[in-house]
Design brief:
By secondary structure, the protein is mostly helical. The protein has one domain. It has eight helices and no strands. It is globular and about 50 Å long.
Length: 188
C-alpha cells in the first residue's frame, strides 16, 4: 500500500470516529499542512504574529470538534483543512493580530508602513467578503477559489476533491477569478 493510499485509509478511519488513528496519521500529513499554512501566512503583511504551527493547531482543534467528518481521500481532507485554515486566518485578521516586536526589518516611513498594513488587511477582508458573496451565488466556484488561493492546491488536486475533470476546474477557476475581480473592482 503506497503512502497516499495509507493516509487516505487512516483519514477515513479518523472520520469514522477512530480518534487513536490520528496519532499515526498526523506525522504523515503534518508537512503538507505546514505547506498550506505557510502559503496562507505569506498572504499576510510581513511580520504577522500568526505562525504556521499555531494555524495548524487551531485548524486541528476545529476539525476534531466537527460532529461529522467524512473525508473521501487525502485531497478532500486537505481541501477541508485549507477552508478551515482560511476561517482561522480571516478571524485572526479581523482581530488585528499584528506583530508588536521586530520582524524582518525594512526601512519605510511610518505613513508608508501604516498604509501597506491596512491596505493588505483590507484587501484580504474584501476578498473574504467577495468569496462569501460568490458562495451564495455558486458554491463550486467559491470552493475552487478558496482551495486554489488560500489552500495553494493545484488544479488536479481540486479536481480530485470535487470529483470533476481538471478542465472543469480550470474553466470554473477562470470564471471565479473574473467574478471576484469584478466584485473587488466594484468595492473600490
Amino acid at each position: 500500500m503506497d503512502t497516499s493510499t495509507n493516509i487516505t485509509a487512516q483519514l477515513v478511519q479518523w472520520g469514522d470516529g477512530d480518534a487513536e488513528i490520528m496519532n499515526e496519521v498526523y506525522p504523515l500529513i503534518e508537512p503538507e499542512l505546514k505547506r498550506v499554512a505557510r502559503s496562507m501566512i505569506r498572504r499576510f503583511e510581513p511580520g504577522d504574529t500568526l505562525q504556521p504551527t499555531a494555524l495548524i493547531n487551531e485548524t486541528y482543534i476545529r476539525l476534531v470538534d466537527q460532529k461529522r467528518r467524512s473525508w473521501k481521500n487525502r485531497s478532500h481532507f486537505f481541501a477541508i483543512s485549507a477552508m478551515t485554515m482560511k476561517r482561522v486566518v480571516m478571524n485572526h485578521i479581523r482581530r488585528g493580530g499584528q506583530k508588536k516586536r521586530w520582524g524582518e526589518v525594512v526601512r519605510v516611513s511610518m505613513s508608508e508602513a501604516s498604509a501597506v498594513a491596512f491596505q493588505r488587511k483590507d484587501e484580504l477582508l474584501a476578498l473574504d467578503e467577495a468569496l462569501a458573496k460568490l458562495e451564495s451565488v455558486d458554491e463550486k466556484k467559491a470552493a475552487i477559489a478558496t482551495m486554489r488561493y488560500f489552500g495553494g492546491m493545484t488544479v488536479p488536486e481540486v479536481a480530485e476533491v470535487l470529483d470533476v475533470a481538471p478542465i472543469t476546474v480550470m474553466r470554473e477557476w477562470k470564471m471565479a477569478k473574473a467574478w471576484l475581480n469584478r466584485e473587488l473592482g466594484d468595492a473600490e
